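Exercise 7.
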Amino acid sequence: MCVGIDPHAFLLEEWGLADDPAGLESFGRRVVEAAAGRVGIVKPQVAFFERHGSAGYDALERILSDARAAGLLVIADAKRGDIGTSVTAYAEAWLRPGSPLEADAMTAAAYQGLGSLEGMLTLAQNGGKGVFVLAATSNPQARPMQRALVQDGAQRGATVAGAVLSEVASWNAEYSRSSIGSVGVVLGATVTLSEYGIQTHAPVQPVLPVLAPGFGHQGAAIADVPRLFGALSGCTIVSESRSILGVGPDRIAAEIARRVTDIQESFVR
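Solution. The predicted structure, written as tokens, is:
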């Protein structure tokens, strides 16, 4: 399970915190404290820190440091994408060991083609890091584009979402050094994957990591993970943010523990 660190302005207010860098830092550090020892991953939404400029990034750096010290893995939800040296620079910011913003994985957008992310994927592979590429996302605005059919090339006839997943799986098969790929995909838990040209009945080797937002506030139920993701369930990271953060600072640790129990029971059935 992955707990989001999404300091929306309304959540900061509900937590009794100011919508400023100090408020962001207090919010993030309290989420890290509640998550430590209960889950393995936290996912800061970079945009909420970026809107406060350099001071927001300073707050994020300290939150990332706390997360590492607590033994948590961090997925930087930055959704970066570009080509050549630019995409490599993004990767160096978020994935390079020793970077002030170092995370264990980051999210990326492949609108310019998965090959445009080569510098990022290579840096992640060589550094023991991960990348999650957007494939089938839960926002309704993405539906027409992600269900559109590829017109030429090796993925001709596949949906855009299906092509991204297929190309990520092929990249892992060629370059991965372990049974679990260093590159995964983002699949929204509120979408019907078959409508996006994604089939989940057969396992993918190396194992394809899936980051799955959409649980809790957005409507997906943890109990439905095996049904939603089929053969991909074994390496699916359930991601929740607002439904956990919304209970407030005094109850968040108990809420995280309850969600973890729900996941364990869902996979035991």
